[in-house]
């Protein structure tokens, strides 16, 4: 059986095999060496993902992945008391949940390469425009996610990676190094344009 690389995360991971996605690029890069398996769950936070952990990565399996990405935090960082309140996970719990995932994966295979990925930045204006295009006057008036708060979750993810000696992709910081990152890296505005074209 070929080695497996598992991508474990939320909807960003689930959509990684769309045209031009990072999952498909990874599968192409390792096409002769390993199978890339997507385990992305739309809307999930780290609290809910823990319930899946033993099903996706069973202890005692003879076919543990050689590498796994853990990519959560975008939903955990939803603001309490706003539209996506039920997805909110306090930042310290988020960090602890990621730690539990890592420790479980290390039990599955001590040699497994584990890469943490921080949540990406939030295009607050783009999310507002999207909400207004869908809900009109009923759209949320206050953001249910902010870039600043998501950045705090990203910092905790980076700190945990350093503490555990893991590799980490600081997507939150890296994306914002590029001018006009909202339009270059996020698909939200393209989606809005397609919706308006269908009206």
List the helices and strands and how they pair.
Blueprint: E1 4-9, H1 11-14, H2 22-29, E2 35-40, H3 46-49, H4 53-56, E3 67-71, H5 91-108, E4 113-117, H6 124-135, H7 147-164, E5 167-169, H8 171-175, H9 181-185, H10 188-198
Parallel strand pairs: 1-2, 1-3, 3-4, 4-5
Helix pairs in contact: 5-7, 6-10
Explained architecture:
With 199 residues, the chain is of the alpha/beta class. It has one domain (4-123, 147-178): SGNH hydrolase (Rossmann fold), CATH 3.40.50. Helices cover 45% and strands 13% of the residues. The chain has helices at 11-14, 22-29, 46-49, 53-56, 91-108, 124-135, 147-164, 171-175, 181-185, 188-198; strands at 4-9, 35-40, 67-71, 113-117, 167-169. It has a five-stranded parallel β-sheet with strand order 2-1-3-4-5, with helices on both faces. Helix 5 links the parallel strand 3 (67-71) and strand 4 (113-117). Helix 6 packs parallel to helix 10 (188-198). It is globular, with a radius of gyration of 17 Å. It starts with a strand and ends with a helix.
Explain briefly what this protein structure is.
This protein has 199 residues and is of the alpha/beta class.
Q: What spatial order of strands do you see in the largest sheet?
A: 2-1-3-4-5
Mean pLDDT figure: 87
Specify the CATH homologous superfamily.
Answer: SGNH hydrolase
Number of strands: 5
CATH class: Alpha Beta
> What is the share of helical residues?
40-55%
Q: Low-confidence parts lasting 5 or more residues at pLDDT below 50?
A: 188-199
For the record, the CATH architecture stands as 3-Layer(aba) Sandwich
| Strand residues, percent | 5-15%
CATH topology: Rossmann fold
Rough shape?
globular
Number of helices in the DSSP assignment: 10
Protein name: SGNH hydrolase-type esterase domain-containing protein
GO molecular function, one term: hydrolase activity, acting on ester bonds
InterPro entries: GDSL, Iah1-like, SGNH_hydro_sf
Family: Belongs to the 'GDSL' lipolytic enzyme family.
